[in-house]
Specification:
Blueprint: H1 5-18, H2 20-30, H3 34-42, H4 57-60, H5 65-101, H6 108-112
Helix pairs in contact: 2-3, 3-5
Length: about 120
Amino acid sequence: MCEGGAACAFDMTRACLTSATFWLRQTAAENGHKGIVEKLLQAGAPWNAQDNDGYCAGEYAGKHPEIVELLLEWGVRAEMLLGAAARWASTTTYIAYHVINMGGRCSATVQSGAC
């Protein structure tokens, strides 16, 4: 058990995200509590987690288009960030590979960004 103010609250929040948050998000989505869903997403709850039956919060929020839209926005944002990170990692790896294999010299192709 943790002791001491903010650190303890943070630990408790992280612990809750692993179990109760999933149920809370699904229930909040199903009952139209957009503010609660948004707070849970901001706290780190995954936008696309599925329950044991394979349903996600978007499916529970079917009668609440504003919550479906919120979940979609979070999903698009997450996918865009993941895509950007993958492209950055791929480009960085490609350039580093060619610089290393050229004995530390950059070619005109690598310098111009035409890789």
